[in-house]
Design a protein that fits this description.
The chain has six helices and no strands. It is mainly alpha-helical and 112 residues long. The chain has a single domain, classed as lambda repressor-like DNA-binding domains (434 Repressor (Amino-terminal Domain), Orthogonal Bundle). Helix 2 crosses helix 3. The longest helix is centred in the N-terminal third of the chain and has 20 residues. It is globular and about 35 Å long.
Length: 112
């Protein structure tokens, strides 16, 4: 995994964990609602594995957050996910497809 991809996954995972904790859900509770094994959710929160677009949208629904929430609330002094994405010279095809899906959904939600 590229270093920048690892940073992006880590940022998303940290935000998922933070939103889960704010929602007062345990790893087991959230994993059950997402039809995931708790170990998989822990790996997502640790930034060790990528989350599918389907799981991402289900996370957003269950946690009652927006796609933008995944890009905010960074610890002071850290790069935001938007800055990291802006600085990426190239994304592989899989990453580009995921970003395109996320952008389309965000635009649809904004335009409602």
């Amino acid at each position: 995994m590229k270093k920048q991809s690892a940073v992006v996954l880590g940022a998303i995972g940290a935000n998922i964990r933070s939103m889960r904790e704010r929602s007062r859900l345990s790893v087991d509770d959230l994993a059950r609602q997402l039809a995931l094994k708790p170990e998989v959710l822990e790996a997502v929160e640790a930034g060790q594995v990528r989350v599918s677009a389907t799981t991402l949208f289900e996370l957003i629904r269950v946690l009652g957050c927006s796609l933008g929430d995944l890009y905010s609330d960074k610890p002071e002094g850290s790069e935001t996910l938007q800055q990291i994405l802006t600085d990426l010279p190239l994304l592989d095809l899989e990453e580009l497809k995921a970003v395109a899906v996320l952008v389309r959904v965000a635009v649809r939600r904004r335009d409602r």
